[in-house]
Design brief:
Blueprint (H helix, E strand, L loop, with lengths): L1 H16 L6 H4 L11 E5 L5 E8 L2 E11 L6 E4 L13 H10 L4 E2 L4 E2 L5 E6 L2 E6 L4 E4 L8 E5 L5 E6 L2 E6 L7 E2 L8 E3 L4 H5 L7 E3 L5 E8 L5 E8 L2 E8 L9 E8 L5 E3 L8 E8 L6 E7 L4 E7 L6 E8 L11 E2 L5 E5 L6 E5 L5 E4 L7 E8 L4 E6 L8 E6 L7 E2 L6 E6 L6 E7 L2 E8 L5 E6 L20 E6 L5 E7 L10 E6 L17 H7 L3 E5 L9 H5 L8 H14 L4 E11 L1 H10 L8 E5 L10 H8 L6 H7 L13 E6 L8 H13 L4 E5 L10 H19 L4
Parallel strand pairs: 3-5, 39-40, 39-41, 41-42, 42-43, 43-44
Antiparallel strand pairs: 1-2, 2-3, 3-4, 6-7, 7-8, 8-9, 10-11, 11-12, 12-13, 14-16, 15-16, 16-19, 17-18, 19-20, 21-22, 22-23, 23-24, 25-26, 26-27, 27-28, 29-30, 30-31, 31-32, 33-34, 34-35, 35-36, 37-38, 38-40
Length: 738
Amino acid sequence: MKLFIATVAAAMTLSVAHAEILTPERVFASPDLSGPQARGVALAPDGSAVTYLKAKTDDVDVNDLWIADVKGGEPRVLIDGRALTDDRHQLSEAEKSRRERLGLRSRGVVEYHWDDEGKYILAPVQGDLWLYERASGAVRRLTNTPGDEIDGKISPKGGYVSYVRDDNLYLMPLAGGGAERALTAGGTELKSWGTAEFIAQEELHRFTGYWWSPDETKIALTHVDQSGVDVIDRVDIGAEGGTIVHQRYPRVGRPNAMVELYVADVATATRVKVDLGSSADIYLGRANWAKDGKTLYVQRLTRDQKRLDLLAVDPGTGASHVILTETSPHWVNLSEDMKPLKDGSFLWSSERDGNKHLYLYTGDGALIRQITHGDWPVADLEGIDEARHLAIFAASKDSPIERRLYEVSWANPGEPKALTPAGGWWTADVAKKGGAFAGSYSDPRTPPRTGFYKADGTLVRWIEENPLKEGHPFWAYRDRLSIPEFGTIKASDGQALHWMMRKPAGFDPAKKYPVIVQVYGGPAGAMVEKHWASPADQVLLDAGYILFSIDNRGTPNRSVAFKTALDRKTGGPDVEDQLAGAAYLKTLPFVDGDHLGVTGYSNGGYMTLMLLTVPGSPFSAGVAGAPVTDWTLYDTAYTERYMGTPADNPEGYRNSQVISRLANLKPGSLLLIHGMADDNVIFENSTRVLYSLQAKGIPFEMMTYPGLRHRTGWTSRPMIHRTHATLDFFDRKLKPPH
């Protein structure tokens, strides 16, 4: 038996020895190693076609807009992103900020919108708007102005295009060649119309400040006053010098922007103010119109985020009243799943029973019934089929590391029916009628693929099949592909912590390997999921490292109890769980327990620093990217949601701080990375670490990137360098000399 095992191991080693080894240059070159992927997938409102963004084969940083008819035929390009762009064009600061909040890193066509009737597609390209007319197949330019048109929309009946420019809301009729007209006047950077403020975009994921009524006679719109928000002067350092940016940045415990809501008459531009209540220090979370346009529903969240009210607003007078309230001793999340129905009722999501589930309410806020039940959370309400009274939703029902699509009746709820198979990760865009959907899937062996499916989950046609076969960009590296192993350990409170491990090609269990722990650890994202991995990870695997991740308490796809274990204790249970993961690694005979590394970005950068500065840290080295280092430097909504304010939680803030722990850092164990134009995790977070380590005489390494923000700017060239820097650092720190 031993001879047989040795023979198989030798054969595997021989096989992978002949497979190509990935380099950072190839990982970030064109074509995309993960193959042709459909991103931003959307169904035409009538379900007859699927549109999507796809990177060019010769430039992964430029997107085109594609369309595929569901009845067949080859997909085709609708809008060529390169033909409409000019590398010399400079976006406005407002558009740069909006793209940063949306995480739009590419160029060309970066977003687009169907109208509700499926006649048009609107696409903003480099600050101007372009319109595709489906009937004629023509693409025409709608705007050509010095200012950027942002947040463009087509009105529900296709009569207008609307957009914000220079802090005012404009309308342009689509028929008859009429000129644009301003619906508001007097907007400024400090006092703007129809915009979503920084906090709404960054932390509430509300990227718009106006909403059309279904009959397109009215628009609900915000007025945002930032004049009371603190000015944080930051130096935006680029390759050719620096610019002082006077950024309105609402830090924890300090004033937010004041947001008012109005309803404007499209014909006359007259408007009424909506009564949002007696306190101005609230968050305007979401707005939805009833199907008949007679009621505007508004989600109002208290500043401490422990109470969420749903207001019913009379659009004629602005009068409002509370029809539904959610409360929590921890925090309440906005409902992403508020869906008005034709009969006047609406769907709603709530975490009140310990998991996020769907509920049905009358139009005046009376509970009719709970629709989904169980010890698992609904992820997203992806769509509805009103004719069959079905809610179509995504959920990690069977396991938090997988996601599938399900349907359930809101009229006669029962056990949800799975529409897609298990084993990986699904996302979907559902047709407005009939329940058909464009579904995208991947798993550790399967690169992302997108197809069009009937309402029962039957595949009709591929949109981008992207099979891993000869000719695929990853084909030459397939024999080195590491298939993850998954498992669980217990947290101190008994809850299961899911982990994922990937081993290098040619793995020999008789040897000992250094390990790099990849961490995020925050409420915004999980690491342990069954989907196709970034090819960039293969570079670290090919360098001889085991890669390991564990999702600590506080990460998503889990129960309320799991997520709120972090309440007022950031840097506590999350760090404890990661240390439990490190302790588990040290029990494995093939792990070199003296050479553990850790790396993460944003919250993962924070976690990296916290783990490196634990007394007696098990980690020999870490690469921390764009870390928060003191939560008093971060923004209001995110920080106060999980930590409260420094005034009401002083101990929590003291315990969560990186700076006070830096004396524990092992000399030379840190590589700190930060973009020099970061407007989210301000560069001051890192300069405080630099100053403190220098004052203490503790050696460390630093790599800064001119012109790069928190998300945007990290395209091919800087990512090649960052990957090389990370690999070089870990090779020097985690590989003992032979």
